[in-house]
Design a protein that fits this description.
The chain has 376 residues and is α/β, with parallel strands linked by helices. The chain contains twelve helices and 16 strands. It has a ten-stranded mixed beta sheet with strand order 7-8-4-3-9-1-10-15-2-16, sandwiched between helices. A two-stranded antiparallel sheet has the order 5-6. It has a two-stranded antiparallel ribbon with strand order 11-14.
Length: 376
Amino acid sequence: MKKIVLGLLVVWMAALTADLSAKSGPGPKKSGKCAVKNVIYMIGDGMGLSQVSMMMLENGYRPTAFDRSGNIALIKTYSANNRVTDSAAAGTALASGNKTDNGMLGMGPDGQVFKSIMERAKEEGYQTGLVVTVYLQHATPGAFFAHVPSRGDLDVISEQFVESGVDVALGGGKKFLQEGQKDGKPLIDALKTKDYRVVYDMNELNGVDRGKVVGLFADEYMPTVMKGRDENYLCNATKKALEILSNNAAGSKKGFMVMIEGSQIDSEGHANNAEGILAETRDFERAVGAAMDFADTHPGTLVVVTADHETSGLSITSNKTDFTLSESGIGYQFGTTGHTGTLVPVYLYGACADRINGIMDNTDLPKEIAALMRLK
């Protein structure tokens, strides 16, 4: 009798498990073979789930680019010496798959140099690019080409940028390349001797559809949207970079890797400026949409959207018992003017988007991407 009861119990448990699995729906399916030709790596600096939620709320919950994601994950952001990371350490983790101390770029606390996945891709014949709204020597973009003990070593970072071989770079930082010297000449001149087209306005890129290009659109930071930057800048710059990189890679078995940063979500977060956070997140979201559109028409393209950390401890609260989308119905509260240690999202779209899943460390994300690109 005991054996019969036990057998019935096992059958009942198996049926219950199957029923629950059916109700929860199937998880992401992993294909046996999967490879990526192009990677569009997008980082919303300071963008946590609250910033994305704010944008969705203020959009009236109409569909956004984030809603198009084919798969979603979460990443931990702590650095080697602090449970709350800065952008340099987080950028290094996202670029190279290695932890480092806050303030360090592309190298470990012991001085070990970490090669980024962008540098590895460049060595293997991929086109590479950077698009930002800060200066190109800033922490997040710098993590993809620089190796310095301090993110403040802007002269060295500028020299390393010139030597990096990045094919397309759009952002600020003209001042550092004008003042930095190589062989007694401004670093901008060094770029030109390497056959880069150097432009100072997006309009100068009209008609440019291939080649090596550096766009320097501000001395240091580009203005925020609230202070006059075109609210479609990042979207338009993303489209232009993708056009140039894809044309450069045409006919090659190798594609491209580009890092696109919504840089000043972070700046407005530090300022506890809800309106500014919303404006910067919307600009980033439009760029994400452009990247996803590109993936739709270019097979083998993977779009990875994430953040280096959350900034400001943003929370969204109800100002009334009846929660509405009206201006008086919700409030935006801030816990800090600094960074926080919360998990941040990863949104995936396009080729092999089902291959990156779950809760992972920020160092795992570039390792997964490198594997899909089959980097050595």
